[in-house]
Write a structure and sequence with these properties.
Belongs to the cytochrome P450 family. The chain contains seven helices and eight strands. By secondary structure, the protein is α+β, with helices and mostly antiparallel strands. The protein has one domain: Cytochrome P450 (Cytochrome p450, Orthogonal Bundle), CATH 1.10.630.10. The longest helix is centred in the C-terminal third of the chain and has 18 residues.
């Protein structure tokens, strides 16, 4: 679906020079990027220190408590993302019944607020542009018999590496 959207938007791959507005207007590309960042956030989590005594629901959290937000857990909560929370499903971002309930506190690939990633918007633009260029021009297939594991610490990445067979898109 992503390649189809890119071919439709940019039929002549030799003249592929999109603007930021053109890239941001690609609906399925945005879904793929959001879903990728939901499943594989740039960081696994972050910590904050509670500055004053606070009650959250039935829980008392005293001043000075270290609070850890595990994005890998938050971004896969079935109560937020539905029964397919662990699956990579870009189309979920097209479902208004799901997205209407997602807040800036449920989806935090770059954090938010004053401690949010200062380069988040640049990273998103680079990600969309690079992914568009790669998918528009190449086909990626796993190498038969090659098994990839996921290493989480210190950063999420494939282990030992990402082995792919690459071919050029002819049209």
């Amino acid at each position: 679906l992503l390649r189809e959207e890119l071919v439709k938007a940019f039929p002549d791959k030799s003249k592929f020079n999109p603007t930021l507005e053109e890239i941001n207007a690609l609906e399925y590309l945005n879904c793929v990027v959001k879903e990728t960042l939901r499943i594989n956030s740039p960081v696994s989590g972050f910590r904050r220190i509670n500055l004053k005594d606070k009650v959250f629901g039935d829980y008392f959290v005293p001043k000075g408590t270290v609070i850890t937000i595990a994005l890998s857990a938050l971004h896969r909560l079935p109560s937020i993302w539905g029964p397919t929370a662990n699956n990579f499903e870009p189309k979920r971002w097209l479902d208004p019944s799901l997205t209407k309930n997602i807040t800036s506190l449920d989806y935090l690939p770059f954090n938010n607020g004053p401690r949010g990633c200062i380069g988040g918007k640049v990273a998103l633009a680079e990600f969309k542009l690079l992914l568009s260029m790669l998918i528009r021009n190449f086909v990626f297939q796993p190498i038969e018999g090659f098994h990839i594991r996921k290493r989480v610490f210190p950063l999420t990445k494939p282990d030992p590496y990402l082995g792919l067979a690459v071919s050029i898109v002819e049209s």
